[in-house]
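The data are set out underneath:

___
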Amino acid sequence: QVQLVESGGGLVQPGGSLRLSCAASGRTFSRYTMAWFRQAPGKEREFVATSRWGGGITYYANYADSVKGRFTISRDNAKNTVYLQMNSLKPEDTAVYYCAADSDPRAPYYSAAYDYWGQGTQVTVSS
Protein backbone atom coordinates (compact mmCIF):
# COMPACT_ATOMS: atom_id res chain seq x y z
CA GLN A 1 0.00 0.00 0.00
CA VAL A 2 1.30 3.43 -0.94
CA GLN A 3 -0.03 6.70 0.39
CA LEU A 4 0.61 9.96 -1.44
CA VAL A 5 0.27 13.50 -0.10
CA GLU A 6 0.65 16.49 -2.41
CA SER A 7 1.50 20.04 -1.39
CA GLY A 8 2.68 23.29 -2.93
CA GLY A 9 -0.31 24.43 -4.93
CA GLY A 10 -1.62 27.98 -4.88
CA LEU A 11 -2.38 31.12 -6.83
CA VAL A 12 0.30 32.47 -9.14
CA GLN A 13 0.41 35.10 -11.86
CA PRO A 14 0.99 34.16 -15.50
CA GLY A 15 4.69 33.68 -16.11
CA GLY A 16 5.30 32.71 -12.51
CA SER A 17 6.56 29.48 -10.97
CA LEU A 18 5.43 26.91 -8.45
CA ARG A 19 6.92 23.69 -7.13
CA LEU A 20 4.62 20.86 -6.20
CA SER A 21 5.71 18.10 -3.85
CA CYS A 22 4.35 14.60 -3.38
CA ALA A 23 5.44 12.67 -0.30
CA ALA A 24 5.03 8.92 -0.55
CA SER A 25 4.99 6.10 1.96
CA GLY A 26 6.42 2.70 1.11
CA ARG A 27 9.79 1.01 1.17
CA THR A 28 10.14 0.54 -2.60
CA PHE A 29 9.50 4.12 -3.65
CA SER A 30 12.69 4.28 -5.68
CA ARG A 31 11.43 1.60 -8.07
CA TYR A 32 7.95 3.03 -8.56
CA THR A 33 6.90 5.00 -11.59
CA MET A 34 5.74 8.37 -10.28
CA ALA A 35 3.55 10.67 -12.30
CA TRP A 36 1.69 13.93 -12.23
CA PHE A 37 -1.73 14.37 -13.78
CA ARG A 38 -4.05 17.34 -13.76
CA GLN A 39 -7.74 17.95 -14.12
CA ALA A 40 -9.33 21.25 -15.03
CA PRO A 41 -13.03 21.95 -14.41
CA GLY A 42 -15.21 20.16 -16.93
CA LYS A 43 -12.28 18.28 -18.45
CA GLU A 44 -10.86 14.81 -18.15
CA ARG A 45 -7.78 14.08 -16.09
CA GLU A 46 -4.71 14.45 -18.30
CA PHE A 47 -1.11 13.32 -18.15
CA VAL A 48 1.52 15.91 -17.25
CA ALA A 49 4.80 14.14 -16.46
CA THR A 50 6.22 10.83 -15.36
CA SER A 51 9.44 9.56 -13.79
CA ARG A 52 10.14 5.89 -14.49
CA TRP A 53 12.86 3.78 -12.90
CA GLY A 54 15.25 2.41 -15.52
CA GLY A 55 17.42 0.27 -13.26
CA GLY A 56 20.24 1.24 -10.95
CA ILE A 57 20.20 5.00 -10.50
CA THR A 58 18.65 5.71 -13.91
CA TYR A 59 15.31 7.42 -14.23
CA TYR A 60 13.49 8.43 -17.38
CA ALA A 61 11.30 11.52 -17.50
CA ASN A 62 8.54 12.12 -20.00
CA TYR A 63 6.26 15.09 -20.44
CA ALA A 64 3.06 16.10 -22.13
CA ASP A 65 3.71 18.33 -25.12
CA SER A 66 1.78 21.14 -23.45
CA VAL A 67 4.29 21.38 -20.58
CA LYS A 68 7.53 20.28 -22.25
CA GLY A 69 10.29 22.83 -21.66
CA ARG A 70 8.37 24.50 -18.82
CA PHE A 71 7.83 21.73 -16.26
CA THR A 72 10.42 19.43 -14.69
CA ILE A 73 9.75 16.27 -12.71
CA SER A 74 12.34 15.14 -10.21
CA ARG A 75 12.55 12.83 -7.24
CA ASP A 76 14.44 12.54 -3.97
CA ASN A 77 14.39 8.86 -3.05
CA ALA A 78 15.95 9.53 0.35
CA LYS A 79 12.87 11.61 1.19
CA ASN A 80 10.38 9.44 -0.74
CA THR A 81 9.30 12.60 -2.54
CA VAL A 82 8.65 13.53 -6.13
CA TYR A 83 8.51 17.13 -7.30
CA LEU A 84 7.03 19.04 -10.19
CA GLN A 85 8.77 22.33 -10.90
CA MET A 86 6.46 24.48 -12.98
CA ASN A 87 7.84 27.56 -14.72
CA SER A 88 6.38 30.04 -17.18
CA LEU A 89 2.91 29.18 -15.97
CA LYS A 90 -0.08 29.96 -18.16
CA PRO A 91 -3.76 30.39 -17.31
CA GLU A 92 -4.45 27.10 -19.11
CA ASP A 93 -2.28 25.33 -16.53
CA THR A 94 -4.99 26.00 -13.96
CA ALA A 95 -6.18 22.65 -12.60
CA VAL A 96 -6.09 20.29 -9.68
CA TYR A 97 -2.77 18.47 -9.86
CA TYR A 98 -2.58 14.86 -8.75
CA CYS A 99 0.37 12.69 -7.90
CA ALA A 100 0.16 9.03 -8.91
CA ALA A 101 2.28 5.95 -8.33
CA ASP A 102 2.46 2.41 -9.64
CA SER A 103 5.03 -0.36 -9.54
CA ASP A 104 4.63 -1.18 -13.23
CA PRO A 105 2.14 0.92 -15.18
CA ARG A 106 1.67 -0.64 -18.61
CA ALA A 107 0.36 2.59 -20.08
CA PRO A 108 2.08 5.32 -18.05
CA TYR A 109 0.41 8.22 -19.84
CA TYR A 110 -3.06 7.05 -18.84
CA SER A 111 -4.55 7.62 -15.41
CA ALA A 112 -6.17 4.17 -15.33
CA ALA A 113 -2.70 2.58 -15.23
CA TYR A 114 -1.98 3.87 -11.73
CA ASP A 115 -3.08 2.19 -8.53
CA TYR A 116 -2.23 4.94 -6.05
CA TRP A 117 -3.30 8.57 -6.00
CA GLY A 118 -2.94 11.60 -3.83
CA GLN A 119 -5.79 13.90 -2.88
CA GLY A 120 -4.77 16.65 -5.30
CA THR A 121 -3.58 20.22 -4.94
CA GLN A 122 -5.12 23.24 -6.65
CA VAL A 123 -3.00 25.37 -8.97
CA THR A 124 -4.55 28.61 -10.20
CA VAL A 125 -2.76 30.82 -12.72
CA SER A 126 -4.42 34.20 -12.92
CA SER A 127 -3.62 37.89 -12.83
Q: What stands out?
A: The CA atoms of residues 36 and 72 lie 11 Å apart. The mean pLDDT is 95. The two ends are 40 Å apart (CA to CA). The first strand starts at residue 4 and ends at 7.
